[in-house]
Amino acid sequence: MVRSLSIALLSLSLVAVTILSPNGSGPSAGALSRPSDVTGFVLPFGGTLRFEYLAPTEVVDLSERNAPIGRARADEIAAAMGFSASDVMTNEQYIQFVTGRGVGGDESLAVLLGQSVGLFINNNGMPLYSNVNGEIVATVLSSFGLMVDPAGMLQSLANESSPSKQVNIDLAPGGYMGDWCRANGCSSTIRALYESAYAEEVIYGYASQQASEPAQLVTNEKNGVSTQIGMSMIPSIWLVNFILLYALNPNYAALMPSNWAGIPSEVSAAIWANGGQVPYAAFASQLPKYEENLSVIPTSTELNRPGATAVDSAGNVYIADSGNNLVLKVAPNGTLSVIAGGGVTSPLSTVVATDAQLDGPRGVAVDSAGNVYIADSGNNLVLKVAPNGTLSVIAGGGVTSPLSSGPATQMQLSNPGGVAVDSSGNVYIADTGNGFIEEVDVASGNLYVLAGGGAMTPQQSQAATNWQDHFGLGLSIRLNAPEGIAVDSTGIIYFAATGDNVVARLISGIFSVVAGGGTNPPGVRGAATSAALDGPGGVAIGPAGALYIADTGNNVVQQIGRRVIEPKPVAPAFTG
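Above: the chain's sequence. Below: its structure in token form.
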């Protein structure tokens, strides 16, 4: 039934596309219906008229460009499209799906999916890192519907070589996603997609892509002004991508761009004239420049190998006092207390946190309920201390390799150096000795390796110019003693690959270096990926999303600061 419906939709798409007649400079508006009064897009680009109002509108203020829609708006759009938050994949299903696990899992398709997610959420806090003429450059161009590929080529997200174009068939509910969900307990997600606006929008989306080859740019004529944008920001495509991403992970759907912006005419003309791709370096001056600079945070005292602390919503500070085998709590009034350690009993044999004999705790985290999580490094455990002082083991204590996946307490951790927890209670571990980044799903208690165990170093991935290596799964990377780890409010993971001298990010299973790998010493202001970190031991995320790095070997704390530089009118250097 599901597969036959998918074939029917595809057949309708092929019928719809016969009315279109693209030419060398863009799709011919004369063969299409008039621009919509809502958005300025002709059909099929505008999609279904009754859902068109849900799609992004044109940027009015520069602050709207590349800004995410936010979770509240994402929930509203999904509900209006007829998709309930109760029908999304579970966290564990999502982990398995995006890492190629589960019954019928396919790692090669998982890579395409993860790469596409990174493109869809390329907002002002989530840049792409591309190799542009040997330099790692951060770019944010999602509102234009553009991106820079690993080799530094500027193009539409729907370009033929883009993962988000290739993944379309795999994500279609009648394809790989449908087969996987039926085999792994999320058939209700597929059913809900077919009952939502997806079934209508996908017809227009398919026809839109066929109408805009090879450049995959679309003309908008709102208020009589003609401008072009990349395919990913037109209503029919944006809504299809949105609802699919929402079904996988609503937090990621909330990061999609809220408004579209017209591409500078010189840039769009060059993309059309050159088969859909042009060198980004030749047109960078025509587009907003996104910078992520690393700077040292001034302190009143010289630091000596800064380590792990955590702060709860009440202002209590928790300290992993590794040398004394304790975890301490400092109240806002300065009162100091021991919350774990100081005893003589193995953590595996007691439920009273202060009776436990910790061994070099190196990581600490706290959730919104006041539960404290400890990376008890010497005991090869991750522990949880409830507000009433009850101790429990979250992970470790077993003999099974974490690569096997399964119950976290059956896994054999090795000197875990960092721990973090997200808003849902899922726990993230920097398993230092094993060289893994892991997640413990709170609902099932199962542990999954998200990064590590591969063959490629972070620096090799950073320097690569192909999709597979530059934006590959974290499981393809060989990590050297990762320690600090943090997770933001949307589930994006940051960690310090200490022995590799870099800080990295995981989005939907895809690995990227965000700081380190360069030669700039501390104090030299420049791109974060041009910095020479020295054994970074910790990372933290500030309230506004700023990333802080304990650059341990350099004895400094550094911050990644972000800014956007608007283009100045200059002639492009590329002539084709």
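The chain is about 20% helix and 25% strand.
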